[in-house]
Amino acid sequence: MPISHDQALEQLHAWTSNPSLLAHARAVEIVMRAAASRYGGEPELWGITGLLHDADYDQWPEEHPKRIVDWLREQGEEEIAYAVSFHQTKWGLPPKTPMDKALLACDELTGFVIACCLVRPDGIATLEPKSVKKKLKDKAFAAKVDREIIKNSVENLGADFDKHIRFVIEALKPHAEELGISGKK
């Protein structure tokens, strides 16, 4: 029996206490659910994949994502485990499914879009792809974000870069309040 959303949330919270990482997990879950609809996937499966992709990072950053991958395999969730493994680009795995490609193309970009929102007075409300692209060129902004991974993963997904940025923005907009990206009131 596949793991439920409640089981996934329970595992995430068992291993993650950092509010930023919890918010990132939720944001990637949201974008992955939208990506499932766009790329012919199953929204619940893709959403759980997004929710759990970094579940072990808070406690074991140097091992990430080995522990969550092992846990997923113990649950019989090989498809999710592989996608999470693939998103660790240092492991050099090839993508097997559209979900693998989507997780990588949505993960870093979602975090970057949220960073963009946090420095804007009106948050995500008026954020446009050109603003995100401008921030991507500024290496000092969100310096830990690997711009090459973003560029290559969107390319690997077969998506137009500007349209993919817009897709991520539009997926996040209805959840702006929950994610704390609606700007300063």
Descriptive account of the structure:
The chain is mostly helical. It has a single domain (5-179), classed as Orthogonal Bundle (Hypothetical protein af1432). It has ten helices and no strands. Helix 2 runs antiparallel to helix 3. It is globular, with a radius of gyration of 15 Å.
What topology emerges from the helices and strands here?
Blueprint: H1 5-15, H2 19-39, H3 43-52, H4 66-74, H5 78-87, H6 98-118, H7 129-137, H8 147-157, H9 161-172, H10 176-179
CATH class: Mainly Alpha
At CATH level 3, the topology is Hypothetical protein af1432
The portion of residues forming beta strands comes to under 5%
Number of strands: 0
Name a few traits of the molecule.
single chain; 185 residues; mainly alpha; Hypothetical protein af1432; globular
